[in-house]
Amino acid sequence: MHATDPTVFVDGDFDGIDLGDGVTVASPSDDNGPSDAACVVVAAPDAEVCDGVPTVLYTDVPPDAVDRPGRFDAYVRRGDRAALESQVRWLLASGDDAGAGGDVERAAEPRNDREWDRLKRLYEGTTELIAAETVEELYERAIGLTEDILEFDNSSFFHHDDEGFYVVANNDDLVGTGPIAAEMGLLGETYRTKRSFLVDDVRDHPEADPNDPSYRSAVSVPAGDDGVFQAISNEVGAYDETDLALAELLVSYVSETRSRIESEAAVRQSREQTERLHRGATELAAATSLDELFERTVEITDDILEFDISYVGVVEDGDIVPTAISSDAPADGAERVPLDDGGIAAEVYLSGTTDITDDVRDHPEARPVKRMYRAVLSVPIGDVGVFQAAAFTPAAFDERDAELAELLMAHVAVTAERIHAESRLREERDRSTALFEHVSDAAVAYDVEGGALTVRDVNRGFQSAFGYDADDVVGSDLLGRIVPPEPEPVPEPGADETIPELLVATGESYRGEVRRRTDGGVREFILNVVPLSPGEERGAGYAIYTDITERKTRESELERQNERLEEFANIVSHDLRNPLSVARGNLDLARETGEESRFDTAERALEQMEELIDDLLSLARRGQLVDETERVDLGVVARQAWATTDTADAELVTCQSIVVDADEDRLAELLANLFRNAVEHGGRDVRVEVGGVDGGFYVEDDGPGIEPDRRDVVFEPGETTDNGGIGYGLAIVESIAEAHGWTAIVTSGTTGGARFEFRA
User: Fold this and answer.
1) Which of 17, 41, 59, 403 is deepest in the core (most CB within 10 A)?
2) CA-to-CA distance for 721 and 712, rounded, in angstroms?
3) What 8-state DSSP symbol labels residue 710?
4) DSSP 504
5) What positions does the domain PAS occupy (predicted)?
């Protein structure tokens, strides 16, 4: 049957693979199983494999994660349909050659064990290719496979660019050779036609033109859209159809892996470029004049976006006036143009829409200053002006360039507006002083000289927010009064550590979050520093403080609440569902069978639910809160907690009298959960000891202890190794400890059991 109408069974939807005429693709059914197929394609790495039937694994699972990969005759990464079709056709062809009409048993006794061995070794060797992290490493490993598995002596990978072909991998130190003309011989023919060639004797091939007269036979395979693989031999007929098929398979693996590596590298490069652009955009905020801002803008576009020529034009009196241009640009690289006849730049400014012109010679409105300018990217800068980048080659810009330029120009527009605002503020200094008292936030007018800050005036908002009378503050050093004594967070390397209020001396503005000391304690503020008359070491300005302490507290509390809400949602949706399903299932079985033991199982499940709900309520209602703490005797509280806990035949030992500052009820709850945990995991006769350590106390038992690799997760809700446990006791323990300001750690006891230490 297979000789005339082979059937390929697939166990899923593989996007309709096309194996050509005369091959049937079907799914296994009750009437036809995998053993009836000429070839089988499976998606699951643990799928059963029929003896004597070639099987291809087509999956997303990496080869190194497949158990016993030798069970399969080939591996193809899911999504590479061309490689799948090629593998299946090769297996079918090999099966037809195996003998006697292509009988289904041919795989058990192949005509050529060496061919099958090479195929399987190639399949196993692809794990080395997939693990490559760079294209160079990929090609190096591929050449190794051509030597060790395909047994080719002279193999090369060629890459094509505008100048021709270059050798990018070779097993005879020829890397870098080139350029080789694209129209030359078999290499060029393979690249142009995207077809594979098997040449027994290059002297008989019309296109072959070897650069070494000793070359006789060759295998030539296209590698993606821009490459070719070749194996060369000095012997006539050195390669056969199997060599060609294996080479095609290897090249398909190399091409797919190269695409993945290049894609990941492009993503990394894009991410790094975006991060650099973000840092550069952040630096723009330090500009104090429009000229400085626009000069920095073209520096960033030249350095980070790597444009050939960058230019900023500002709109003044109906014209677009050149303000900044790349340092490498010619002196007359930009000129003043009127808005009503300013070409692409005017259109972009008036429409507020970015434009990409692939070639200015084809644009009816383009009026390039230099003929060498070909492609142009134009981005509006708000109401300020226009940014343009020019390239010396057509189609040099894409949407990605436009997006990054738009992102940067958005920062430029905001900073320009800020500079305008500061300029207007300085111009209106007198009016600002008159309005000083009407600012609702805390405001301070002050002078800076020689690094010292002297208060000239404070408004009523300052007196209300900080609690200091104006008479006590005016004329004094403000910083000594309001900067907290504790250090601010360590700044990033290279960051300016200057106190923001002092920046007015150099005419710099500032906006950011700070911590400042008030009469009622340290609070959080948004600080706006506005300079008025900058000098070298002196200046005047305003500091405006917006109190955000309550908002920050609410944000922190909301974040904690959201975390707890998510935690409880997960608990309710997962941990309650299991015992509820057990109870419901056993009740249904009790109704059907009348077995009373089912009621006992249901009751135990409901008891487990009740215990879980009690723990959930303990976490939900009291959370991390504690009532007022007092000095309590740890031993007394421990014995009280022991008496109220089901401890079976366990023994409690309190070593000495330890006094701790705690909420007695919550401390008893913490100890009871630890005692219960010790009995559950250490047995009914476990010995539990409570004693003191430097700065706190401990609870340890002589049970089996907790493995080191689990000690970081034992406090997580639902974490347990006891089939009967619910896993929230230790979560409650940690919650109570954190509410007291204690740090809870898990270690090993003196006898190898579990030891919990709590330190303030």
Assistant:
1) 41
2) 14
3) G
4) G
5) 428-486
